[in-house]
Amino acid sequence: MEREAMEVDVAIVGAGPSGLSAAIRLAQLAAEAGRELSVCVLEKGSEVGAHILSGAVLEPRALDELIPDWKERGAPLNTPASDDRFLLLTASRAFRLPTPPPMHNDGNYIISLGNLCRWLKEQAEALGVQIFEGFAGAEILYDADGRVLGVATGDMGVGRDGQPKDTFTPGYELRARYTLFAEGCHGSLTKGLFARHDLRAEADPQTYAIGIKELWEVAPDRHSQGRVVHTIGWPLDNRTYGGSFLYHLEDNQVAVGYVVALDYRNPYLNPFEEFQRFKTHPAIRPTFEGGRRVAYGARALNEGGFQSIPTLVCPGAAIIGCAAGFLNVPKIKGTHNAMKTGMLAAEAVAAALAGTGAPVLDAYPAALKKSWVWDELYRVRNIRPAFRWGLWPGLAYSALDTFLLRGRAPWTFRHHPDHESLRPAGMATPIAYPKPDGVISFDRLSSVFISNTNHEEDQPGHLRLKDPGVPIDVNLALYDAPEQRYCPAGVYEIVRDAAGDNPRLQINAQNCVHCKTCDIKDPRQNINWVVPEGGGGPNYPNM
Ligand SMILES: Cc1cc2nc3c(=O)[nH]c(=O)nc-3n(C[C@H](O)[C@H](O)[C@H](O)COP(=O)(O)OP(=O)(O)OC[C@H]3O[C@@H](n4cnc5c(N)ncnc54)[C@H](O)[C@@H]3O)c2cc1C
Ligand code: SF4
After folding, report:
1. Atom of ligand 2 nearest to the CA of 519
2. Going by C-beta distance under 8 Å and a sequence separation of 6 or more, which residues neighbour residue 432?
3. Which of 21, 54, 190, 453 is flagged as catalytic?
4. Pairing of strands 5-13, 109-110
5. At 352, is the secondary structure helix, strand, or coil?
6. What is the CA radius of gyration of the chain?
7. Alpha carbons 86 and 433: distance in angstroms, whole number
8. Neighbours of 115 (CB within 10 A)
9. How far apart are CA 440 and CA 448, in angstroms?
10. Alpha-helical runs (H) found in 313-402
11. Is 117 a catalytic residue?
12. CB atoms within 10 A of CB 292
């Protein structure tokens, strides 16, 4: 069936902080120049913010540049970060360590990134940007030479068998002079763009972590608005990189989360269970006693930093924000860089549209290299890879790099792909996790329930196996099916017949919270995450 098409100047895929900042900057520049400019943003969540999950402590540097009067305009930055704590946990004790300089939060704010995006959406719309919520970018449109011509949204109303249902509506084409990919960490279209134009050829592999988060309403006497707590150590072993965050927001809310790097080696490790176990620590548990868990979700984040920045432009397109990977790991912050790269790409697009209309936006990477984002990421580039040697050597190297070398070491440590790190199950120690108590710790299904995840059940699977034999012949045989454990939504299950034989992988795709971990960690890269019908997925209130 013929698809309808819409022509715009700029299409932006993803209404996160990077996409919305780009849209706002484009509209600001057009208004300043007195030019008409059509900017259209696609968002796969049912509404802007529905798929946004972050910590989050915001460094407001990019926001100050983008909308200097954000306070007067009522931006939801209500809680200045006022009290930083950095703890090393053992199984029974907590030791307060000096807060490393990158983790100082003076001048920063504890926020809900979902709510900030909702506010940015209002600012963008007031400037004339069109935002299509509940529409997923499902396909990149190219010309014969590979120039990006825009994107197409997915068809709606297709059954599991691939046949159109009564509700069938074809996707439409959003044809654009320039397209910005702002899908966030490990974007599904961005992945295709990397491959089509070989944009990762000069960069190290991207590396990742999974972040699992809950939002709690805690008892008032357990709350200290503005407090920022980070922990390292227990329950992770010293060879696994990760840690927790607890951010005390307004209204007795605490955002608590656990981040586990996806280069972990033990296939028995279960990031969700590590998080649940973490909350039971004697120094952590009291915060949540008498409180109520109100939201749950998970999302991958980039850890590759400077070494993993890909080529950012190809004819007709540019990649911004965490889709490219600008998170600063020692700071545990990516939003300011996502916003700034969106703004820089927008400026390059505006100049191109006003000038020659050259297909490749070279001005964007050139401006990036002169920006504070580049300098910031360069200085910390060796810190995350140093933790490959373990927690203590990593901490020692970080101190050396930060205080003595000041990020100017004449070497750069390299990255390795996360999916290659798993050891065979036979060489690993199984981990016995405690049963959830239903008060402080929970199981995955009740957790997914409060992520408000919803997918049309009768649609083609969005978790596609390249080879259907790999889950049993390789993953189960060699690694005891790690997808059963790393998926924070319990999507992957090995089921057997009544006699306990004939194992097969069951995929409960309707529970998927769009974290992208399976597409990253599957040892044979056999799982391809594609967008489901637009609007499907979690419905986070304020994550
Ligand atoms: C657990 C965790 C804690 C974090 N803590 C902090 C913190 O404290 N401070 C900080 O600064 N940063 C933090 N970060 C990082 C921060 O969240 C990211 O850097 C930031 O969200 C990146 O913005 P983005 O716009 O690039 O991508 P995202 O915020 O991921 O937004 C991408 C948007 O695009 C949409 N999208 C994706 N694909 C498509 C498609 N094909 N079609 C249509 N829409 C699509 C998504 O639904 C989403 O709305 C944290 C991240 C995590 C996971
Ligand atoms: S199926 Fe994949 S993307 Fe979905 S929640 Fe599980 S690991 Fe994340």
Report:
1. 2
2. none
3. 54
4. unpaired
5. helix
6. 23
7. 25
8. 19
9. 16
10. 335-354, 363-369, 372-379, 383-386, 391-399
11. no
12. 11
Q: What is the pLDDT along the chain (543 residues), one digit of tens a residue?
A: 679 999 999 999 999 999 999 999 999 999 999 999 999 999 999 999 999 999 999 999 999 999 999 999 999 999 999 999 999 999 999 999 999 999 999 999 999 999 999 999 999 999 999 999 999 999 999 999 999 999 999 999 999 999 999 999 999 999 999 999 999 999 999 999 999 999 999 999 999 999 999 999 999 999 999 999 999 999 999 999 999 999 999 999 999 999 999 999 999 999 999 999 999 999 999 999 999 999 999 999 999 999 999 999 999 999 999 999 999 999 999 999 999 999 999 999 999 999 988 999 999 999 999 999 999 999 999 999 999 999 999 999 999 999 999 999 999 999 999 999 999 999 999 999 999 999 999 999 999 999 999 999 999 999 999 999 999 999 999 999 999 999 999 999 999 999 999 999 999 999 999 999 999 999 999 999 999 999 999 999 999
Task: Pick from 188, 462, 513 the residue to mutate for probing ligand 2's pocket: most ligand atoms within 8 Å of its CB.
Answer: 513
Show Cβ contacts of residue 57 under 8 Å, excluding neighbours closer than 6 positions: 81, 105, 108, 109, 110, 111, 228, 247, 332, 333
In angstroms, the CA 488 to CA 482 distance is: 12
Q: What would you measure as the largest C-alpha separation in the chain, in angstroms? A: 73
CB-based contact 99:86 (threshold 8 Å): yes
H/E stretch holding 61 reads helix 61-66
DSSP 219-275: -GGG--TTEEEEEEETTS-TTS-EEEEEEE-STTEEEEEEEEETT---TT--HHHHH
Q: Is the CB of 208 under 6 A from ligand 2?
A: no
Q: Is 518 a catalytic residue?
A: yes
**Is the pTM higher than 0.90?**
yes
Distance from residue 186's CA to the centre of ligand 1 (Å): 10
Distance from C-alpha of 302 to C-alpha of 515, rounded to nearest angstrom: 12
DSSP 471: I
Which two structure tokens, joined as six digits, stand for 212? 């699992």
The per-residue b/e assignment along 52-85, b for 16 or more CB within 10 angstroms, e otherwise, is bbbbbbbbbbbbeebbeebeeeebbbebebeebb
Minimal-distance CA residue to ligand 1 atom 19: 334
Per-residue DSSP letter, 359: S
For the question of residue 515 being annotated catalytic, the response is: yes
C-alpha 264 – ligand 1 centre gap (Å): 22
Peptide bond into 182 cis (omega under 30): no
Q: Whose CA is nearest to atom 10 of ligand 1?
A: 333
What are the CA-CA distances from residue 457 to residues 159, 391, 490, 509, 540 (Å)? 9, 43, 16, 8, 20
Q: In sequence order, what DSSP letters do the residues of 10-57 get, joined into one string? A: EEEE--SHHHHHHHHHHHHHHHHHT----EEEEE-SSSTTTT-----E
CA–CA distance, 401 with 410 (Å, rounded to integer): 11
Rounded distance between C-alpha atoms, residue 185 and residue 327, angstroms:
9
Ligand 2 site-directed mutation target among 301, 505, 510, 517, most atoms within 8 Å of CB = 517
In this structure, which ligand is nearest to the CA of 305?
A: 1
